[in-house]
Amino acid sequence: MQDENYLIASDFQGKIKRWDLRKRKVVQEYGGHVNEYLQLPFEVDETETILYAAGSDCITRFWNIQDGRLLHSLPAPYKADSYYIRGLIPCVAYSDNWGKGDMTSSALLMGIKDEMRFYTMY
């Protein structure tokens, strides 16, 4: 993040939290993320307003960084408990600047198994 007073991190229970390094305490939690593994990646968009992560339940969630509000949940095209998808977490990339010229849009690119999917977000 640009503001070096804050750090976003995932703890050993899989919870994603924003820390104020000056106060050495959690100032925001991002609820709903499911992480049954020691480490799953999360990302922050270019404008540092949206945090997103794909969980072990195969749902990609988007939160407002400032207030922790869940903005959107996007399930993978397969159920997390199906034999076909078990143990696989989607790889995701989000940008609010995908498009050409004046036509920009927020979108998510999701890869899972041997498929790539493109979702327009807003």
Terminus-to-terminus distance: 23 Å
Could you state the order of secondary-structure elements as H and E?
Answer: EEEEEEEEEE
Mean pLDDT, rounded to whole units? Answer: 82
Number of strands: 10
Category by helix and strand content: mainly beta
Task: Please state how the strands of the largest beta sheet are arranged side by side.
Answer: 4-5-6-7
**Global morphology:** globular
Give a short account of the largest sheet: 4 strands, antiparallel
Give the count of helical stretches: 0
Describe the structure.
The chain has strands spanning 6-10, 16-20, 25-30, 42-44, 50-54, 59-64, 70-75, 91-100, 103-112, 115-120. The chain is an all-beta fold. The strands form three sheets. A four-stranded antiparallel beta sheet has the order 4-5-6-7, with no helix packed on it. A three-stranded antiparallel beta sheet has the order 1-2-3, with no helix packed on it. It is globular and about 45 Å long. The mean pLDDT is 82.
What's the short version?
The protein has strands spanning about 5-10, 15-20, 25-30, 40-45, 50-55, 60-65, 70-75, 90-100, 105-110, 115-120.
